[in-house]
Amino acid sequence: MAVTERVTEAETLLLAGEACSGLGEGAAFTRLEWVRREFLARLGFEPYPGTFNLRMAGPEWEEARRVMAREAGIAITPEAGFCAAKCFHVVVGGCITGAVVFPAVAGYPADKFEVVSAVPVRQALGVSDGDSVAVSIVC
């Protein structure tokens, strides 16, 4: 008996956003042991303490949000008292791999693009707030 596999080609979304400072909560979150364990198991890397934030806007971003909403993504399963999240693999600035994280919390800003990586993205790219940064999202 033959087994048939459904093979789908991943969709890559190409966007650009504006580098911006976050709330400063990413460093504490990415240091939590369960977060480090989840990222290593599900995404293949241990996160650098902190996140890299972009502000996204425009019709391309709206379409990308619709695409990601209908895709399963990579689920991050939280410990009690924390929220779940959905992630997608990304390449930032054409050279840094990581994951964009969308926490499952009410009121999460629609224009926020929060990247977790094994390296300090802002420093590695040499970007400042307001700089335009390209991202490729694999769905």
Number of helices: 4
Kindly identify the CATH topology: Elongation Factor Tu (Ef-tu), domain 3
Percent of residues in helices: 10-25%
- What Rg, in angstroms, do the CA atoms define? 15 Å
General shape = globular
Element string (H = helix, E = strand):
EHHEHEEEEHE
From the N-terminal CA to the C-terminal CA, the straight-line distance is 32 Å
Largest sheet: 6 strands, antiparallel, barrel
Structural class of the secondary structure composition? alpha+beta
Q: For the record, what CATH class applies?
A: Mainly Beta
CATH superfamily: Riboflavin kinase-like
How would you classify the quaternary structure?
single chain
Low-pLDDT stretches are 1-7
- Secondary structure: number of strands: 7
**How does CATH name the architecture?**
Beta Barrel
**DSSP strand (E) fraction?**
25-35%
Strand order of the largest sheet: 1-2-6-5-4-7
Would you spell out the secondary-structure blueprint of this structure?
Layout: E1 12-20, H1 26-31, H2 33-43, E2 52-55, H3 59-70, E3 74-76, E4 85-92, E5 96-103, E6 112-117, H4 121-125, E7 132-138
Antiparallel strand pairs: 1-2, 1-7, 2-6, 3-4, 4-5, 4-7, 5-6
Could you explain how this protein is built, in words?
With 139 residues, this protein is an alpha+beta fold. The protein has one domain: Elongation Factor Tu (Ef-tu), domain 3 (Beta Barrel). It is 24% helix and 32% strand. It has 4 helices and 7 strands. A 6-stranded antiparallel barrel has the order 1-2-6-5-4-7. A hairpin with an 8-residue loop joins strand 5 and strand 6 (112-117).
